[in-house]
Specification:
With 437 residues, the chain is of the alpha/beta class. Helices cover 46% and strands 14% of the residues. The protein has 2 domains: 199 residues, NAD(P)-binding Rossmann-like Domain (Rossmann fold, 3-Layer(aba) Sandwich); 230 residues, NAD(P)-binding Rossmann-like Domain (Rossmann fold), CATH 3.40.50. Helix 1 packs across helix 3 and helix 13 crosses helix 14. Bound molecules: nicotinamide-adenine-dinucleotide.
């Protein structure tokens, strides 16, 4: 099969690379020429475990990169759109990139194509894209047929390759049998593994993506709220979440108390849901609360650190982890960065270390006045508090013996509840977790 991917970011690059690994001929296109020229030199612009190896195996060969939309459209019988869809301040989705991509695609079309929208976008976007393409084709006097499909993406950064190859389900929203069969054939390898294909209409497929993210984010916010209550009542939120998660109806994922969710999806998609609801004259109470609890959680985590350290002015705080979760260099809406900003506002000096996300933090937050360090040890020299903000593997087995010799004050704040309080205390550190008194 010949596939083109328009928008070669986290989703597009993983999608294109994985399809090439599964045997398709893939062209990945992006308007970011720097990104494309790096990819052509074999430089992978994102950190995603396993991705580099897959790109190396398929490029050059079944995988190609281009910044020319004409090239991508000429190549692909199936054209995926995977451009970014940020949410604006008024909670509406900014679909500029989608419509730019759609217009570019339509102008280059010379025959039947299946256009697949993988970008997360409000219900109704698929139909609106269809109308846009129809009108461009009509204006140009091109009598071609095409089909519109919605195929939302559920991959998790940090686990994206595995998630793409072996997802929990594949959702296909299509209007024609022909398009449905083409996309089903594309995913035949995954279907053969027993992965359910849910085929539905375009509008329902679009909603599945938002509904899934709302459920997951709700679990996180609810658990954080319960953890805050545990802290006040003297219960241990770690054990509460473990026991609650053993109930099969609830499940154990997304129940670890912490600083709240971040990343490119949950915050953006939940805000977009508020926008979708407003457009339809509905006021969703739970979705609004999920967002509010998440925002408040970052403030509570800052207060937790402040309470432990005391007056921040003149103090140094070490923050371990900048990405919104381990396994990725993505810092979009990372709670760690929000907490660092509050520490800096409070007058603390902040030293940071992250195994993958420092470059992105520096380039995307040029105003963030922190000291970037080479490793955990250099970040901990003469510090008054070590904050574990993102649970990267290397922060899960810290050498507290050595750290004790480096710090000014042995204070450890574990925002991910990675450690047992007694295990840390035996090295002479004070320990503060989340949802534990
Ligand atoms: N990142 C995730 O974990 C994830 C998971 C599921 C769904 N999604 C959704 O997938 C979509 C893409 O997300 P992402 O994280 O990959 O975004 P991203 O910002 O990493 O990548 C988007 C890419 O699209 C390119 N682009 C923008 N306009 C373009 C155009 N007109 N033509 C060609 N390229 C263009 C950008 O240069 C960029 O490289 C979003 O809607 C997002 O909500 C993301």
């Amino acid at each position: 099969m010949n596939i083109s991917i328009v928008g070669t970011g986290y989703v597009g690059l993983v999608t294109g690379t994985c399809f090439s690994e599964l045997g398709a001929n893939v062209v990945c296109m992006d308007t970011d020429e720097v990104k494309i020229s790096k990819l052509k030199k074999g430089i992978i612009p994102i950190y995603e475990p396993g991705l580099t190896e897959l790109v190396e195996r398929n490029y050059p060969g079944r995988l190609r990169f281009t910044s020319l939309i004409s090239d991508a459209v000429a190549h692909g019988d199936i054209i995926f759109i995977s451009v970014d869809t940020p949410t604006l301040a008024d909670n509406t989705s900014d679909l500029t990139n989608i419509y730019n991509a759609v217009r570019d695609i339509a102008l280059c079309m010379t025959g039947y194509k299946v256009i697949v929208n993988k970008s997360t976008s409000p219900v109704g976007t698929g139909q609106s894209i269809k109308r846009e393409i129809q009108s461009i084709l009509k204006m140009q006097g091109k009598p071609f047929d095409f089909d519109m499909v919605s195929n939302p993406e559920f991959l998790r950064e940090g686990n994206a390759v595995v998630d793409f190859m072996c997802p929990d389900r594949i959702v296909i929203g299509a209007e024609s049998i022909k398009a449905l069969e083409i996309i089903e054939e594309l995913y035949a390898r995954q279907a053969a593994l027993g992965i359910p294909l849910v085929s539905t209409d375009i509008e329902t497929a679009e909603m599945v993506k938002y509904a899934s993210n709302a459920f997951l984010a709700a679990k996180i916010s609810l658990m954080n709220e319960i953890a805050n209550l545990c802290e006040l009542c003297g219960s241990d939120a770690g054990i509460v979440s473990e026991a609650v998660g053993l109930d099969k109806r609830i499940g154990r994922h997304f129940l670890n108390p912490g600083p709240g969710f971040g990343g490119s999806c949950f915050p953006k998609d939940l805000r977009a849901m508020l926008g979708i609801a407003k457009d339809n004259g509905y006021t969703p109470k739970i979705i609004k609360s999920i967002i509010d609890v998440n925002e408040e959680q970052k403030v509570l985590m800052f207060r937790k650190i402040k309470k432990t350290v005391g007056r921040l002015k003149g103090k140094t705080v070490t923050v371990l982890g900048l990405s919104f979760k381990p396994g990725t260099d993505d810092i979009r809406e990372s709670p760690s960065i929000a907490i660092i900003r509050k520490l800096l506002d409070g007058g603390a000096k902040v030293k940071v270390y992250d195994p993958q996300a420092m470059k992105n933090t520096q380039s995307q937050n040029p105003d963030l006045n922190v000291q970037y360090c080479q490793n955990t040890f250099s970040a901990s020299i003469k510090t008054d508090c070590i904050v574990l903000a993102t649970e990267w593997d290397q922060f899960v087995c810290l050498d507290f013996d050595h750290l004790k010799k480096l710090v000014r004050t042995p204070v450890f704040v574990d925002l991910r509840n990675v450690y047992n309080s007694d295990d840390v205390k035996k090295y002479g550190f004070s320990y503060t977790g989340v949802g534990r008194s």
